[in-house]
Amino acid sequence: MALCAATASARYTVALEAPGNVEELLSRHLDIYRWRDDAKFDNEGLAVLVERVPEDAAGLLNTIGYFSPQVTARIDATVTPTKVLITVVPGELTRFRQIDFQLNGGIDDDDAREGRLQTRISNNWQLKEGDVFTQAGWDDAKRRTLLALQNARYPAARIEKSQVRIDPATHSADVTLIANSGPSYTYGEITVEGLSRYPASIVKDLIDFKPGQTYRRRDLLDLQAEIENLPYFGGAAVEAIPSDSAPWVAPVTVRVQEVPLQRLSVGAGYSTTSGARGSVAYTYNNLFNRGWVFDAQSTLDRDTQEFETGVSFPQRSTGYSHRIYGSLKHENVENLDTRSKKLGVSRSITRINNSNGIDRLITLEYLTEKRDRGGGDIDELTALTANYRWIRRDLDNQRDPHRGNLLQLEAGGAAKGMLSDETFVRLYARGQQYLPFAGKGIFVARMELGQTIANDPNKVPTDWLFRAGGSGSVRGYDYQSLGIAGEDGTVLPGQAVVTATLEAQYPVYKDWRGAVFVDYGDAAATFADLKPVAGAGVGARWASPVGVVGADLAYGFDREQVRFYFSLGMAF
């Protein structure tokens, strides 16, 4: 029994006696609950509401399979405030006895395709004889049937007959569903609307279907998603309207909403790793009126000064994007001073499905570097490198994951004599797993593993070696402070790295979570030389609209030190 407490101004309270699932449904939807806190509601109005309770409750119970309920409702005016007493005996659940499905229309002319669609519909339907009948389940079965047809070559498919026959005596339901596929459609003329700043080619080059090809709704959805991811547009809509007479074609209309040609952004922020920082970035989206995107950006903080510029070319129907770039960078971290110049080309593709996806990036890069290892040791390096990066995301939510995993794999290197001073190969892997626990808690496990194979590591560029420490690595230690000890307090990069993290997060207030964690790892010349150190601490996580922001206080056991990690930035 559930008794709903009233406020001081309530005209009446409601006491409902019913099984748990029934009680939840009725208390959420019956009108008798809606007005109980309205001080203006009079006794006459209450009597009308109470009189309607049995009929309204029966209608609600029908939706979850109870077609012979016994419902009584009465008013008890002997108490103050007045009480409405409702008793519900739902009776026996109604189950599917016979399911009659028929598929008609143009699909009859293709026996093989009819068989495949029948199988797909059966797999998606998920209704079987003997299952409990619910209105939601029946509606979902009809929706899945229609979508299975409309998503294929039959966009004009419709439900011709939908019938449910309930036998209260046997508590059974006989259902009939007749679907008409309509004719088979092909794509018609493809038009693009809304373009004034950018050439039509940047949209048309994405389209991998042509007039006359078989209609598939997935083509339209994929095209719309790809257009929306382009830097030229703030929104897009892709529609195909089926003709209502032969020839059975569906002309395609692509409507886009353009963004300005140029964008200038300035940023400022502070990091506990590198102090105050600033950035300036400029983008021009239509170089030479070909949709080429020119960008230039400069960043500056206590340890790093970098300038990068490049040109990105429009994505093709294959899904691949290409870019050429160059950069200048000066960095001094843990007394290791490096100055580098890079010139490179890249080829990338991203396949996204909801919060899941796979990124692939191939890079060919020529770089020169001058590295001061301390003690008068100066390395001057050149390398022509190739690298392949593969990242898979399988998460329940991209912005704030609670379940799923991330996996990153990389392989690359250079060959001596081919514009390179040394032959080397770099292999790298990183994984992160999210698991829910104790209701709303999140358990996070991370591991990183990398090795560079080379005869002389002093001839390998810094970016192709490893250091550890800091946020995202081993907390409790300074950024990239774990590596090979050099002269003058310099920390040199090594050929091997291993780090791992275990972290538990739990909600403490609204979008805030508390966290406890332990990190472990090191970087060294070889795996045999690794001397892993541990750090542990507590932190806070805020699930902001743009992602999770974190602050951590960590203790490094090996160096007996406390470090605070927090990043805050603002663009304007």
Chain-wise SSE layout:
Blueprint: E1 2-4, E2 12-17, H1 20-29, H2 31-34, H3 43-62, E3 70-76, E4 82-89, E5 95-104, H4 111-125, H5 135-150, E6 158-167, E7 172-180, E8 186-193, H6 201-204, H7 217-228, E9 233-240, E10 249-258, E11 262-271, E12 275-287, E13 292-301, E14 304-313, E15 320-333, E16 336-353, E17 356-372, E18 378-395, E19 404-414, E20 424-437, E21 441-454, E22 484-485, E23 491-492, E24 496-509, E25 512-524, E26 533-544, E27 547-556, E28 561-571
Parallel strand pairs: 2-4, 5-7, 8-10
Antiparallel strand pairs: 1-2, 3-4, 6-7, 9-10, 11-12, 11-28, 12-13, 13-14, 14-15, 15-16, 16-17, 17-18, 18-19, 19-20, 20-21, 21-24, 22-23, 24-25, 25-26, 26-27, 27-28
Helix pairs in contact: 4-5
